[in-house]
Amino acid sequence: MIDVIVIGGGPCGLSVGAALQKQGIHYLILEKGAIVNSILSFPVNMRFYSTSDRLEIADIPFLSEEERPSRSEVLRYYRSVVMRQKLNILTFHHVTEVVRLLNHFRIVCSDHQGQERVYEARQLVFATGIYDQPRLLGVPGEQLPKVKHYYSEGHSYAGRAVLVAGGKNSAIEAAIDLYRSGAEVTLVHRGPTVYQGIKPTLLLDIRNMIEKGRILFYPEAAVTAIDETSVYVQRGDNLIKVPNEFVFSLIGYRPDVALLQQLGIELDAETQVPKFNSDTFETNVPNAFVAGVVTGGITNKVFIDDGRLHGFNIARALAASIH
């Protein structure tokens, strides 16, 4: 019997594991992909907006070449934390079922070979993040192979007609990089502007590209359908047919709440924020905790910067109850 199982091996899940380890609590982290798997899906040349010190976990300094670290530096840092601290983590263990028994939990998962693995723990921590489940446009044609919900790099799309849907940082970064890589870029956003609420480092570039017509921008517009050669954009009373070869739908992500609901954790119907104690992070289900980005539901108000600190509270609460 394990004292605590942490579901999710992202930065916040690793931070929980490190805090538990420091308290001498027997724990296991189960991660369905690689270490900090969600960061693998970030753009190859991405540079984090958070400074390196705000991404640190386990009391290990994070030194990067520039104030804001690159994706490769972040991956290397978290990988080194796992190795140096000898964190107890099993990667490629996808949790498929969580059952509450009389005095503990039964956790069923599938490993990289498709074999079922079963673990039992007295306490559970969900640190599952939100990046694995993209929000969908919900329009005909979204299932076509040309539609992507993650952006990696722009080189492959040189000379191709590409539409980006969205108006936040990920969409703007993709549009800028695609243009610089030689793509013909159309940007569609439901709001009136993309100049507000984005990283200051992106603002000058995107404004310049839009105002000089280098990126075709449709504000207050929505994608209504996609086919093999076009995207249909509704703007006011006008339906615009945009010639197209690839679509990047970058309109945000949602937490995967299936396991939380399976266990009976209450969620706000509108925000998907789970019900939990703000001091201990224990949910309405006794001995089940939440940590990291999943605590913010779809509000986009919790990031690695904040979520990495939740483990301290959880570890203190569990140490008091276990020891």
UniProtKB/TrEMBL annotation:
Pfam families in the record: Pyr_redox_3
Gene3D superfamilies registered for this protein in UniProt: FAD/NAD(P)-binding domain (3.50.50.60)
Keyword Endoplasmic reticulum listed: no
InterPro entries in UniProt: Auxin_biosynth/cation_transpt (IPR050982), Bdr (IPR023856), FAD/NAD-bd_sf (IPR036188)
Keywords (A to Z) from UniProt: Oxidoreductase
GO MF annotation list: flavin adenine dinucleotide binding; monooxygenase activity
Matching PANTHER family: BACILLIREDOXIN REDUCTASE BDR (PTHR43539:SF4), FLAVIN-BINDING MONOOXYGENASE-LIKE PROTEIN (AFU_ORTHOLOGUE AFUA_4G09220) (PTHR43539)
NCBIfam families noted in UniProt: Bthiol_YpdA
UniProt protein name: YpdA family putative bacillithiol disulfide reductase
Organism, scientific name: Paenibacillus whitsoniae
